[in-house]
Amino acid sequence: MEQYLLLAKGTKGRALVDLIQKVTAEPGIFAFAELLDLSNIKELEKSEHAHAYHLLNVFAYGTLAEYNASRASLPAISEQQQLKLRQLTAISIAEDKKSIPYEELMQQLGIANIRELEDLLITDCFHQGIITGRLDQRQKCVEVLDSIGRDVRASELQPIIDSLQKWMAGCESVAGALDERRQWLAQAAEQAEQDRASAEAAVQAAKNSMKSEHDIRVGSREDMQIDDVEGPSLDAMVEDRIGVGSGRPKRRQKTHAA
């Protein structure tokens, strides 16, 4: 397209008409709005070559059916241009529908049989990358996955802008809700960490308290064992030695004089 734009900027009259015929037949070019924006192209509308200007408008925004409806006032087109209009028409239909019946396509594209339609879709649409999809031969329809875009008339821009703004507002709303959720999760995680630390501290304090009580109990039990076992045995030994507690002095062993 850049080459045609450069040529068009320095061209007028009949040469510009010929350029329009060539660019509309060029394989791989499916957008023409940039040409229509050129001042010398716009001048064609009010000249003797207005039919070329209107033909370029059909290729930019219209369909094969629109061309056929205005065929009397438009220049004749070649087979390559007719193929291009069929491709552009298929793109327009694919933009609005994700499942297109064969019957509708054949009517819109001016094709008489299914074999010719499938050849066009596979070779000139799918392989060209202008439409992505698959043929459902059992249901006799085309399942569209994606398609390239076409030029948009100025009168059609506002609804698109409104739709995009609505979509952006929805995205901003979702982003705000996600941010609020993120903040709530961060606060919840922080609170959970504080609760975990408090619980661990409480558990450790309980363990320390239980250990202290256990140590005190063990120490008391050991003291009691010492009092019960060693104390009475020592007293008994003392009493036995000094003769206390039996009620009579301990008898001494007699000794015989030699």
From TrEMBL:
Ranges for region Disordered: 205-258
Keywords: Signalosome
Cellular component annotations (GO), alphabetically ordered: COP9 signalosome
Limits of the PCI domain: 1-149
Comp. bias (Basic residues): 248-258
Compositional bias annotation for Basic and acidic residues: 210-224
InterPro entries in the cross-refs: COPS7/eIF3m, PCI_dom
PANTHER family: COP9 SIGNALOSOME COMPLEX SUBUNIT 7 (PTHR15350:SF5), COP9 SIGNALOSOME COMPLEX SUBUNIT 7/DENDRITIC CELL PROTEIN GA17 (PTHR15350)
Recorded family membership: Belongs to the CSN7/EIF3M family. CSN7 subfamily.
Protein name as catalogued: PCI domain-containing protein
Species, as recorded: Coccomyxa viridis
